[in-house]
Amino acid sequence: MSKQLRSWSEYVDLLKPAEKLLKKLWRPDDIEYRADYYRQMVMNISYAYFQYFQSNETHPELMPLWNSVYLLQPNPDDVYYYAPIDGKHTYRVLGDRGTIHMLHFQFGYGMMGMVHPPGKQVSFVDGKDLQVGKDGKFEFIVSAKKPDGYTGHWHQLDPKCDFMMVRMRSYDWGNEIDTRLAIECLDAPPLKRRMPPEEIAERLEGALTLTDRLCDLFFGLQNDILKEVGKNKFQFNTYPNIGLQNQYYWTAVFDFEPGEALILETDLPKVRPYWNVQLNDPYFNAIEYVYRQSHLNGHIAQVDSDGKFRAVLSLEDPGIANWLDPAGFKQGTIYGRWTQCDSAPMPTLKKVPFADLRKHLPKDTPVFTAEQRAAALRQRRIGAQLRRRW
After folding, report:
1. How many CB atoms lie within 10 A of CB 17?
2. Helix, strand, or coil here: 13?
3. Residues 6 or more apart in contact with residue 5 via CB below 8 angstroms
């Protein structure tokens, strides 16, 4: 049955039920928590426009999904894009590969936020498997059935699929060349149709209720960590329906007070094409990572002389290279990733007095000066802005 267009005030009323999710916050009566959540609701409205209105399955475009603006627990090394598709159609994906560290395509049905619980990731294309020409260009066909006579790279599409998600993963921000990418539907009319009122009405309802579904999903994920392992302890997750193939996530809820620090310590896989660690706020958003070092990856992290990786999470700069800056948050989540590695070590967290921090670190841990910090942060913010994020 087609949706009928409502009055604008009725659509505004669709936003109100999202306030009930406050009870899922760790501190629902804390004014800072409430203010941050209200800000996130506005972010979700902007984000929802792209998902519901900018594109459709016969005239798809790669739209912004998660990045330094839409902070719904994105990997700071990744810029995510989304395109609606229909598994019964045939698509060409093409572009210039560039030198970005990793490129991943995911195909599935039931995009998180648009439905809850989310559907399923069905298939993947790893950028390293693309047939890239000497000029750096590539293309591949995605369809349920291979087109007659086609000899290029073909990826079989499950007919149920209704989205393609792309992750452009950078290790050396600003110095890698981003992939240029396009998608086209090969069996669609050339002109994009005007959206009728009934469809706009349906999409408005979806967009203005997205927070109800998306935040419920993400709050549930972090609350599950707290329930299963408590605070300041890691567990492994694979998130098969929303995560990346061949990637182990190590996750924890961090909790500390002023005057304390958390020391993260882990062995490293011998083969480690990619790994990182990031901090999230209590609402599952990545903590500001352009202007603050709330994340580290295998390219920029300093490895200690014993071969282990150690980082310090503290409100104050601890004077070491591997500071994870929580930007004033004393609670949140930590997400690390072992991607295509030959092992998956389990990291640990140790809470210590900030004043005694050096007693708990290797004696040869170098001092990181204020001048070095300023230079590292400048390189970070310039590198982040030089990346394509939209």
Report:
1. 11
2. helix
3. 197, 198, 200, 201
pLDDT digits (tens, 9 = 90+) for 183-209: 999 999 999 999 999 999 999 999 999
Q: How far apart are CA 53 and CA 207, in angstroms?
A: 9
Contact between 311 and 264 (Cβ < 8 Å): yes
What average pLDDT does range 21-45 have in this prediction?
Answer: 96
Q: What is the pLDDT of residues 304-343, one digit of tens each?
A: 999 999 999 999 999 999 999 999 999 999 999 999 999 9
Q: Output the CATH code of domain 219-386.
A: 2.60.120.1600
CATH 2.60.120.1600 in the chain is located at 219-386
Instruction: Tokens for 9, please give them.
Output: 């005030």
Which tokens sit at 144?
Answer: 């349920």
Radius of gyration of the chain (CA): 22
d(Cα 16, Cα 22) in Å, to the nearest integer?
A: 12
Residue 210 in contact with residue 77, Cβ under 8 Å? no
Higher pLDDT, 344 or 1: 344
- Whole-structure pTM value: 0.95
- Token pair in block for residue 220: 């549930």
**Distance in angstroms (rounded) separating the CA atoms of residues 381 and 390:** 16
Say which DSSP state 112 is in: B
The pair of structure tokens assigned to 58 is 């016969």
Output the pLDDT for position 243. Answer: 84
